[in-house]
Design brief:
This protein is mainly alpha-helical. It has 2 domains: 91 residues, Winged helix-like DNA-binding domain superfamily/Winged helix DNA-binding domain (Arc Repressor Mutant, subunit A), CATH 1.10.10; 43 residues. It is 63% helix and 10% strand. The protein contains 6 helices and 2 strands, in the order αααααββα. Strands 1-2 form a two-stranded antiparallel ribbon. The two termini are 44 Å apart. The mean pLDDT is 88.
């Protein structure tokens, strides 16, 4: 079950907490994101695994979660003699921030609508409870 909003408001959060708040990403995902953000060049999954001190397969799963969330991009690098490999880099900061802002606005609008529905649904019951018919 996700943490309640009231708990989030009491906690000391930093900007990387957004990774967890918006997409439920894990601590390893955060470490991979930081490794990619700190790197001057795109990294392979093996290089990412080395930086975060995890097996390649574990690093790959974190990379996949970050890709699905839209925080990083995958690029194909072709060998001259044929074949290819993939490298990863952090997506454009503005694009990521804009997407998080859009999601927050959508969430806010949806919560506002649900609060209105709550008022309408339970206002009638409150009136009935305080003024029962005789």
């Amino acid at each position: 079950m996700p943490d309640p909003i009231s708990e989030d408001l009491r906690e000391e959060l930093d900007c990387l907490s957004l990774l967890e708040s918006f997409h439920g990403l894990k601590e390893l995902d955060r470490q991979v994101f930081v490794a990619l953000a700190d790197s001057e060049d795109p990294l392979t999954v093996k290089e990412i695994g080395d930086v975060v001190d995890r097996e390649r397969s574990t690093a790959y799963r974190a990379v996949q979660r970050l890709l699905e969330a839209g925080y990083i991009q995958k690029e194909q690098v072709n060998y001259e003699e044929g074949g290819y490999y993939h490298v990863y880099r952090v997506d454009e900061t503005e694009a990521v921030a804009d997407e998080m802002q859009r999601m927050l606005n959508d969430w806010y609008a949806k919560m506002g609508q649900l609060i209105d529905e709550f008022r309408e649904e339970y206002a009638d019951q409150e009136t009935t409870a305080t003024h029962p018919e005789q």
